[in-house]
Amino acid sequence: MRIDPFTLELADPLVTAAGTIDAREGFTVAYRHRGQRGVGEATPLPGWTESLEACREALHRAAAAADENASDSDGSGHGPALLELDAAETPAARHGFATALLDADARADGVPLYRWFDADVGTVSSVPVNATIGDAPVEKTVEAAEAAVADGFEALKCKVGARSVAEDARRLRAVREAVGEGVELRADANAAYDRETAREALEAFASAGVSYVEQPLAADDLAGHRELREMGVDIALDESLVEHDPQAILDADAADVLILKPMVLGGPDSAHALATRARERGIEPVVTTTIDGLIARTAAVHVAAAIPDVRACGLATADRLAEDLAPDPCPVADGTIAVPQSPGLGREVTL
Predict the structure, then answer these.
(1) Helices 165-179 and 138-150, interaxial angle, to 10°?
(2) Does 269 appear as a known binding residue?
(3) Fold of domain 2-110
(4) Annotated binding residue 214
(5) Residues with catalytic annotation?
(6) Were 107 and a residue from 6, 254, 309, 343 both cysteine, which residue would form a disulfide, CB within 3.0 to 4.6 Å?
(7) Is 324 annotated as a binding residue?
(8) Beta-ladder partners of 128
(9) Where do the domains of the chain lie?
(10) Consecutive 10-residue runs of the chain (351 residues): their mean pLDDT?
């Protein structure tokens, strides 16, 4: 297994609960499996996954445990390596190795990765994506929304929670008036509210036709989120998937929508499996990223493409990077992101 570090500067700083990030650091992974060389990416994000050092150590343990010769010749040598990578403890490291395996498997079978996940999905040339219009005063929020709709986006995600509920409601209503009823409007609160404030917000946001509010409460408050589902605006959970086993969220009936970040869940395979389980429970999956490089971002596009009639996903994130690992194989145009059709991740995605 080849493990190479990289650093990608961000176009603008990324503010997280763990601090402000100016660059994304991680590792590319290359591994031979079933006669093919697969590639993966492990890009940890503080507060969401393990640390960079823990990711590095886990990948090197996996490399020591793998029998790459056996894996290359007959596909049998990767099991011990996967056992070294616990999705709950080192999800980014597991994502890197799992993506390389999946890329090689799909290449060996001669199909793009999304069709390796689901052979019955047919040809999917693109996936709808949302635009994020951020947290700005009313006028600038409306300008950003109108620009996104002019670019073809039919779903907009607006950050809320840093301002008063009344002010955020004004922003959302102004956007709705500007873009009309045909555009889906989402709000992302990033766990900003207590239960009482969340109820106030959902009631106010409903007047703007908001389809769902993402993570209104603290990540550990599944009971509170379940109660909010009675308010008439759907509840999407994101940060809660870091705090809880996904099955606990499904069993708690705490969400109408799950925001699936493959890097956080331990790999594209884990994300696709959870999307399938969610759909079986009547919960909609929306695939997004942790502002990853092109390998992980492309893998996430394949996960989304393997979900029939997927809702607009948060995959239009390449512009958050000032530089990338290679030219982007998944350009965004008219509110959609292109899905590579070559075997594996796509012939453009190589190291």
Answers:
(1) 30
(2) no
(3) Enolase-like; domain 1 (3.30.390)
(4) yes
(5) 159, 261
(6) 343
(7) no
(8) 336
(9) 2-110, 119-338
(10) 97 75 95 97 95 98 97 94 96 98 97 97 97 93 97 97 96 97 96 97 96 97 96 95 94 97 98 97 97 97 98 96 94 97 87 68
